[in-house]
Design a protein that fits this description.
With about 400 residues, this protein is an alpha+beta fold. Helices cover about 35% and strands about 30% of the residues. The protein has 3 domains: about 200 residues, Efflux pump adaptor protein, beta barrel domain (Elongation Factor Tu (Ef-tu), domain 3, Beta Barrel); about 60 residues, RNA polymerase II/Efflux pump adaptor protein, barrel-sandwich hybrid domain (OB fold (Dihydrolipoamide Acetyltransferase, E2P)), CATH 2.40.50; about 110 residues. A hairpin with a 2-residue loop joins β1 and β2. α1 packs across α3 and α5 runs antiparallel to α6.
């Protein structure tokens, strides 16, 4: 059944290439599950039979044989796929905890940065308050007029004043000693006091600089801790990275959110495209700009698209390549993850000399007599017909092998 439906599509694409939108959905759709004898299936079989009848009557007949006919032929590659929203991604949270509430609903339009949900933040809120309090304390202590630096600055000033006084006294004592006034012991006492006050002043300044530097370092650490705590709080309120639509919410309030599983799906509200899986044997013939005929599960019409991007790496599990296509015609309502089946138009000719595919022998000969095989060269192929580019002409009588 699947092969018959697929062949029907290829033949109808050949016969009605100029109006692809008129193709019936049944001619394009390939069911992945086992088909049941439904009305739709019976209709598809009826259309297939009619198409085969057209093929048979379209070939010239001559005493039990046929002659090649001239007409359009399209070579296509089959692909299955899904509708995707541009920028569609799964939202993960870096925090672990129970979901307390959703701030959006399925289908809501959101802006970049919109908060989506809240995760239980009682422990992180306490840590954030502690970090904020520590930061505030260190900001006050590190201030030049704060309770830590003011006493140290005062000590420096006192040491400097004492040093200035002892320096003056020592200079006076030296002048007196030069005039033979006073004792040497007085001079040495003044010199010792001068040296001690200078050392005390230098040490006071050093203490002030060390404490100031330590407070600034601790302030930087506290600021970083506060930033990390705030970031942790943000992790408990995941936000949308793009402007778009909330397509799905994957956890319920009260359930546990963790970095191992997504919590929501967000994507573009209007920019939708089709993502196709193309067999590796067909990928060398694909290029951007090629036309794509699409059948969507939810609609009975055929839509068109254009190949926009070919991802240059094969999925080793499915042996397929990912191909993106932008809609040329699309339904009024379109939803991500809708399934689709497609034929990608590789080549097309409006006037080609063709024969039925089952008249070709070993891909390079046709039977032109009872026991005579004639070599031919072929061009485009679909599941029903083959283009003949050399070896025979439209007057040659052919016999089915």
């Amino acid at each position: 059944m699947q092969g018959l439906l697929r062949e029907t599509l290829m033949e109808r694409s050949r016969l009605e290439h100029s109006s692809p939108s008129s193709l019936p959905k049944g001619a394009l759709r390939l069911k992945h599950a086992k088909l049941q004898p439904t009305f739709a299936a019976m209709k598809a079989l009826a259309w297939a039979a009619a198409s085969l009848l057209v093929l048979c009557t379209g070939c010239g007949r001559n005493k039990g044989g046929i002659t090649p006919t001239t007409g359009p032929i399209t070579e296509s590659a089959y692909a299955s796929g899904v509708v995707k929203a541009r920028g569609q991604y799964q939202v993960y949270t870096s925090a672990t905890g129970p979901v307390t509430e959703w701030l959006v609903h399925k289908g809501d339009t959101v802006k970049a940065g919109t908060a989506l949900m809240r995760i239980d933040d009682r422990s992180s809120l306490a840590g954030q308050r502690s970090s904020a309090a520590q930061l505030q304390l260190l900001q006050r202590n590190a201030a030049e007029d704060g309770p830590v630096l003011v006493p140290l600055r005062q000590a420096v000033q006192l040491a400097r004043d004492k040093y200035a006084l002892d320096s003056t006294n020592y200079a006076r004592q030296q002048a007196l000693w030069a005039q033979q006034i006073g004792s040497r012991n007085d001079l040495e006492q003044r010199q010792l006091a001068f040296s001690n006050s200078r050392t005390a002043w230098v040490q006071a300044r050093k203490n002030l600089d060390q404490v100031r530097a330590q407070l600034h370092t601790e302030l930087d650490v506290a600021a970083n801790n506060a930033a990390i705590s705030t970031a942790g709080q943000d992790d408990r309120t995941p936000r949308s990275l793009i402007a778009g639509v909330v397509y799905d919410l994957l956890v319920e309030p009260g359930e546990m959110a963790s970095p191992q599983k997504p919590v929501a799906i967000v994507g573009s509200a209007t920019n939708l495209y089709i993502e196709l899986a193309v067999d590796e044997k067909d990928i060398p013939q694909l290029q951007p700009g090629q036309r794509v005929f699409l059948a969507l599960e939810a609609y009975d019409s055929v839509f068109t698209a254009r190949v926009s991007r070919i991802v240059p790496i094969m999925d080793p599990r499915t042996r397929t390549f990912t191909v993106e296509a932008e809609f040329a015609t699309r339904p009024a309502k379109l939803f991500p993850n809708s399934t689709a089946e497609a034929n990608i138009e590789l080549r097309h000719k409006d006037h080609a000399l063709t024969i039925p595919a089952d008249y070709l022998v070993d891909d390079g000969h046709v039977r032109t007599g009872k026991d005579r095989l004639t070599a031919v060269t072929t061009g485009l192929k679909d599941l029903q017909r083959v283009e003949i580019t050399g070896g025979i002409d439209s007057t040659t009588t052919l016999y089915k092998p």
